[in-house]
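lol ok so funny story. i was supposed to be doing the assay writeup but got distracted and ended up predicting the structure for this chain instead. priorities right. anyway since i did it might as well share w the group, maybe its usefull for someone
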Amino acid sequence: MKEKLKQFCQQHNIDMVGIAPIGPYKELERILKDRMDKGYLTGMEEQDISKRVDPQRTMKDVASIIVCAFPYFIVHQEDANISKYAYAKDYHLIVKEELENIGAFLKEEIDGFIYQTFVDTGPFVDRYLAYLSGIGYFGINNHIITDRYGSYVFIGYILNNYPFEPDKPLKKTCIQCGACMKSCPGGAILGDFQINPRRCLSFTTQKKDVLSREEKKLLEKHPMVFGCDICQDVCPHNQNVSYTPIEAFQKSIIYKLEEKEIERISNKAFKRKYGDRAFSWRGRKLILRNLEAQRKTTKDT
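and the output, tada:
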């Protein structure tokens, strides 16, 4: 059945599939408690650690976890002001549809098959599941790196009641050259496979709190309005990576938002135009705040 699963995924251009065990994940629990003690949290995470380390808290009958990586790299766009992961249609929608297709296929093949799909929506640590399933290995910037697509991948997974045999983690890490740590604008990458996410430029562009003077200067120097790619772009593992074979990530590309347009349109018009984009979830006002912060800081300098 595992071979049938992988063949089906290959037919749909999903060539990175692995099986993670169902836990509980004691090592991850120690990591998460340490992060909490150090204040390395964004506030967007699931607060109940037991839910993050024990899949049975989410699905009582879970017997295995199917983990898939979805590559999204298409181009390095020099004047982009949104992250590469947001160029195409919202990855939550694309990946969710692909996972549901896999679930529907297995439902036809396996009597009594039950499943739940997740794309950045469950309590779990997606990258840890990808690591456990052998899809990729950790970089010191905490990204999961794959051999073919580097770290330009989304992770989706399926909790299910079929006992697929778990895969093994890869026995390697990134080359630990330190390029990502040296290039990180906010100094979020600490060099020991830990990050302080509250100092990450991507977090800064998405936080709803008032931006500090230091954060505004950060946006002036690195004029992004949603997300950040710097630690990925400088990574040796991301040089000469393969382009995504997934058609949905190749279409309807937007890589830059213009301040004049965002100023002019209403919140409703913004939602109508960009509602199916990953950068829309925080709303027009936050995007406009980031654009204005760059302009005002430039004037004040």
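The beta strands are 17-20, 64-71, 115-118, 137-138, 144-145, 153-160. The first strand starts at residue 17 and ends at 20.
back to the writeup now i swear
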